[in-house]
């Protein structure tokens, strides 16, 4: 089972940890909060029984997370240095550069949590201050909005993000809440799980020629026809090797699929039958199963039954 390692600095509060644990449990992976070699990072460790190539793909991914309070200080440092002033704090660009040096050739993604809330709080405080100046009455109770620390604008943040992208090639992404961070870790984990399966999808656009420029080999006894049928299916939109294997297992030849399509009383029945075919993702980090689905079943039915040579299968 895949394990998600989360540095404690990513989720210092119990509530934040619970959200991430729940998000990981939703997709059936283990989550462990342990100090990482690079602080504020999330990394993935695959199960021991997967192929070495898939292991390498999974371990190449790493996510860095920073909360708004720290990001504001770094962005403020960038503004000070841009204005020719000295700063005791590293800039966002310096931090990302240090991350890239620490993680080496890994694929780094960076997320900042809660920056929109920071700007919203400052906007509310500015309105409150203006209201006090107009009415001459100070705000009281829970409505009083007192903010500490450096002040930056959304424009300052965008400038700092652009600088980071220009000098490091890293794009800063934002999430608004702890809940969104947990969901982002969940989505990133799912992407990591699927990445080995999708890695070679576009390596060879003409996959039907992968055994040589002369095409796939078929001998006089007909050996190789099944492979030709599989690669023919893979020319359809979004049909990968795993889905083609599932279809070929159920219908080893085009004629058998054609007969099945014609034997049913309606196209809807056939499409439903095709949509329920089980697809096993062999190259995934976690063995997963899915169905062919309605859209692919519709394309497949049209492909095998259409008598219009000009028809475009969308």
From TrEMBL:
Signal peptide (from-to): none
Keyword Nucleus: yes
Keywords of this entry: DNA damage, DNA recombination, DNA repair, Endonuclease, Hydrolase, Magnesium, Meiosis, Metal-binding, Nuclease, Nucleus
GO CC aspect terms: Holliday junction resolvase complex; nucleus
Disordered as annotated region, ranges: 127-149
Cofactor annotation: Mg(2+)
UniProt entry tagged with the keyword Hydrolase: yes
Gene3D superfamilies: 3.40.50.10130, Crossover junction endonuclease EME1, DNA-binding domain
One GO MF term: crossover junction DNA endonuclease activity
Subcellular localization, as worded in the UniProt entry: Nucleus
Main location, first listed in the record: nucleus
Gene Ontology terms: biological process: double-strand break repair; mitotic intra-S DNA damage checkpoint signaling; replication fork processing; resolution of meiotic recombination intermediates
Entry similarity comment: Belongs to the EME1/MMS4 family.
Name of the protein in question: ERCC4 domain-containing protein
Source organism per UniProt: Candidula unifasciata
């Amino acid at each position: 089972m895949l394990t998600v390692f989360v540095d404690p600095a990513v989720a210092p509060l119990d509530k934040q940890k619970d959200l991430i644990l729940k998000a990981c449990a939703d997709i059936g992976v283990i989550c462990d909060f342990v100090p990482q070699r690079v602080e504020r990072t999330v990394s993935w460790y695959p199960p021991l029984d997967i192929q070495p190539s898939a292991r390498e793909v999974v371990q190449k991914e790493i996510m860095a997370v920073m909360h708004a309070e720290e990001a504001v200080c770094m962005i403020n440092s960038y503004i000070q240095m841009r204005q020719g002033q000295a700063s005791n704090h590293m800039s966002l660009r310096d931090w990302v550069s240090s991350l890239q040096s620490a993680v080496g050739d890994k694929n780094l993604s960076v997320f900042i949590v809660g920056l929109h809330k920071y700007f919203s709080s400052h906007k509310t405080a500015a309105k409150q201050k203006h209201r006090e100046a107009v009415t001459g009455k100070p705000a009281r109770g829970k409505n009083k909005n007192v903010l500490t620390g450096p002040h930056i604008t959304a424009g300052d943040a965008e400038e700092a993000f652009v600088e980071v992208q220009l000098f490091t090639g890293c794009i800063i992404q934002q999430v608004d809440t702890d809940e969104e961070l947990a969901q982002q870790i969940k989505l990133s984990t799912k992407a990591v799980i699927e990445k080995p399966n999708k890695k070679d999808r576009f390596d060879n656009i003409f996959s039907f020629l992968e055994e040589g420029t002369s095409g796939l080999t078929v001998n006089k006894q007909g050996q190789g026809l099944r492979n030709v049928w599989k690669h023919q299916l893979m020319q359809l939109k979004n049909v990968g090797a795993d889905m083609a294997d599932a279809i070929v297992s159920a219908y080893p030849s085009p004629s058998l699929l054609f007969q099945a399509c014609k034997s049913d009383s309606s196209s809807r029945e056939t499409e439903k039958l095709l949509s329920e075919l089980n697809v096993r993702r062999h190259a995934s980090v976690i063995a997963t199963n899915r169905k062919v689905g309605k859209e692919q079943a519709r394309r497949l039915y049209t492909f095998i039954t259409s008598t219009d040579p000009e028809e475009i299968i969308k």
